[in-house]
């Protein structure tokens, strides 16, 4: 991931956008501190997901509508925690 100082990113915005589309995310820093990452629209859409609700996702499951689905319980002992 290439890093740009904010002043340079502002001055060369077209190049930053082109690089994000071609080479992947571009990090932007302010006073040496990472503050933002520019990603292409395709990468954003991939990360944001489909926008589908959990209910719709579950309805597409091959197990949807089956009544006899068994989920075995883990019978292992709980670990001890020091408080």
Which key phrases capture this entry?
83 residues; alpha+beta; YefM-like fold; 4 helices; 3 strands
Describe how the helices and strands are arranged.
Elements: E1 2-5, H1 6-11, H2 13-23, E2 26-30, E3 33-38, H3 41-48, H4 54-59
Parallel strand pairs: 1-2
Antiparallel strand pairs: 2-3
Task: Name the overall outline.
Answer: elongated
Mean pLDDT: 92
Adjacency order of strands in the biggest sheet: 1-2-3
Number of helices: 4
Q: What value does the Rg take, in angstroms?
A: 23 Å
- State the CATH superfamily name of the domain at 2-46: YefM-like domain
Percent of residues in β-strands: 15-25%
What is the CATH first-level class name of the domain at 2-46? Answer: Alpha Beta
Summing up helix and strand content along with how strands pair, one would put the structural category as alpha+beta
Helix content: 25-40%
Counting DSSP E segments of at least 2 residues, the number of strands comes to 3
Q: Helix-strand pattern, N to C? A: EHHEEHH
């Amino acid at each position: 991931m290439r890093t740009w100082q904010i002043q340079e990113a502002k001055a060369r915005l077209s190049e930053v956008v082109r690089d994000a589309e071609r080479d992947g995310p571009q990090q932007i820093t302010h006073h040496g501190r990472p503050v933002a990452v520019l990603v292409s629209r395709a990468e954003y859409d991939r990360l944001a997901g489909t926008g589908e609700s959990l209910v719709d996702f579950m309805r597409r499951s091959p197990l949807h509508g089956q009544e006899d689905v068994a989920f075995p319980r883990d019978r292992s002992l709980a670990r001890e925690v020091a408080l």
